[in-house]
Structure formats: C-alpha cells, structure tokens
Design a protein that fits this description.
By secondary structure, this protein is α+β, with helices and mostly antiparallel strands. The protein has a single domain (about 1-80), classed as 2-Layer Sandwich (Enolase-like, domain 1), CATH 3.30.390. About 40% of the residues lie in helices and about 25% in strands. It is built from 3 helices and 3 strands; from the N terminus they run βββααα. It has a 3-stranded antiparallel sheet.
Length: about 80
C-alpha cells in the first residue's frame, strides 16, 4: 500500500511511503535535506511500521516543533490508525 502525505512545518513538500506486510518497503521525499532524507529512507527499509513510529516520533528540527522524521511518523501513525 502506498501512503501519500503532505508534511506540515518542515522543508519537505511530499512524502510517499510504500508499506507491505506491516514493513516499510520504500520512502521517497520531495524537498527537504536530500542526503539526510535518503539516509533515513535507507535505514527505514525493511523496518516494521510500529518500530519506525517509535524511533522517529517527537524528533525536532532546530527550533521547529517538528521535523521530517516526526512528519514521517505522523504519516505512518495515520496509516496505522486507518488500517487498525
């Protein structure tokens, strides 16, 4: 299943996450810090959704109230709640 999410409060503009069998298959982010987000996407590949949420939720970027990882966790949490 593909999750399409428009993050709020960060530099990235669009997040597309592919999930199969409750594991993350791929993550693509438009905008934001390209190298860092590619690294995060690589680390998330194969990770269970709940583990990814647990690891990324609440991370802040500088003085912002959120971050790209936190926004990824919100996208995954929304998907989890919709598919519970």
């Amino acid at each position: 299943m593909k999750i399409t999410y428009r993050p709020k409060g960060v530099c990235s503009r669009l997040m597309e996450i592919e999930v199969e069998d409750d594991k993350i298959v791929s993550v693509e982010v438009t905008g934001g810090c390209d190298g860092n987000l590619k690294g995060i996407a690589s680390l998330l590949r194969g990770m269970p959704v709940d583990e990814a949420i647990r690891r990324m939720e609440g991370i802040r970027c500088g003085f912002k109230a959120t971050s790209c990882p936190d926004q990824l966790s919100k996208a995954l949490r929304g998907w989890r709640e919709a598919n519970a």
